[in-house]
Amino acid sequence: MAWMKHKEGKRQPADKAETCPHCGAPIPDRTGKKPKKWHERTSVTLCIAAGLVIVGFGFIHIITGVVSPYSLPFDVVLKDSFGYRETFVNARKIEAIPYLAAQKKYPIGCRVLQRENYMESGTVFETRMTRHLQTDMKKWQAEFSTGPLTAEQSPGSPWQQWQNQLQGQSHTAQTNPEDPNACNNRGIVAAREGQYETAIAEFTRAFRRNPAFAEACYNRALVYIALGQLGPAISDFTKVVEISPALAEGYTRRGLLHVAMGQYDQAISDFTKVLEIDPASAETYFRRSLAFYAKGRYDKAWEDVRRIQDLGLPIPPEFLESLRAASGQ
């Protein structure tokens, strides 16, 4: 009994500590542990879930701006390999910028969209996008033109006016039919009459007799362009600027051909050279901005746009809208 009483004596303070002796209210057990809050109980679970989500993003692409086969405004597809580059692919943003720029800025996104048939693949897509870009650039350039349209810019009949750009002393009488000027004059007459092969032969004869005859080489390049032979035309304009480095028109013509052939780096170089000769050429600034845009160098395109605006000239609104969409400004 003594042991039992002793045990009861030990338990009695604990029993009394459970309630207040005055009001009977329960007294919290200060010797026990405090209950955990909800975020403490779920922190481990949340960390595990977040980790799984982060790892999962390394295996999938989320394509937005499309309608999935399940009629959802997005699609989720597996990646070719684990990684976090271009996990989110915006189809509309990629299609809104020039193809070369899209390939450079979003190489994985382009491949994913083509693989999932949201874009044409291979050369089909490249050809369509390049053709669309070229059409837009010609339209914007024609809209911006501050003077009479050049042969390259004339809508409907691109080469209708090129004969007016032929250079030479067409009204000067020559006693020697083999004189370079006489050959060049005959070439001008033949070109204006549509006898292009004869014109090329005469300009070639004039240039052979006088290798420094830049006008004959320039004229031959114009005929090559009319025949669609852009490579020989570029070669002739290269000879022209080698003979007459200060002739801005030679760089301009060659730059326009580079643009037509999608050689934007070369075009930028030519237009830059023109601006060194004529720093106030607003039209050249605009041509260079188009080349920068096509190349995906949007910061440089904006610099040229601002120079044009400083000159007080308007920019085609559609070009500004496309540039803003592509650059994210």
Q: How many domains in all?
A: 3
Number of strand segments? 3
Rg calc: 37 Å
What's the pLDDT, averaged over the residues?
81
What is the CATH third-level topology name of the largest domain?
Answer: Serine Threonine Protein Phosphatase 5, Tetratricopeptide repeat
Question: Can you offer a commentary on this structure?
Answer:
With 329 residues, this protein is mainly α. It has helices at residues 2-17, 38-57, 91-96, 99-105, 107-115, 122-144, 180-192, 196-209, 214-226, 230-243, 248-260, 264-277, 282-295, 298-310, 317-327; strands at residues 60-64, 74-78, 88-90. It folds into three domains: 57-119, no CATH class; 120-149 and 255-329, Tetratricopeptide repeat domain (Serine Threonine Protein Phosphatase 5, Tetratricopeptide repeat, Alpha Horseshoe), CATH 1.25.40; 152-244, Alpha Horseshoe (Serine Threonine Protein Phosphatase 5, Tetratricopeptide repeat). It is elongated. The termini are far apart.
Quick description:
The chain is built from 15 helices and 3 strands. With 329 residues, it is mainly α. Helix 7 runs parallel beside helix 9 (214-226) and helix 12 (264-277) runs antiparallel to helix 13.
Question: How are the elements arranged and paired?
Answer:
Layout (H helix, E strand, L loop, with lengths): L1 H16 L20 H20 L2 E5 L9 E5 L9 E3 H6 L2 H7 L1 H9 L6 H23 L35 H13 L3 H14 L4 H13 L3 H14 L4 H13 L3 H14 L4 H14 L2 H13 L6 H11 L2
Parallel strand pairs: 1-3
Antiparallel strand pairs: 1-2
Helix pairs in contact: 4-5, 6-13, 7-8, 7-9, 8-9, 9-10, 10-11, 11-12, 12-13, 13-14
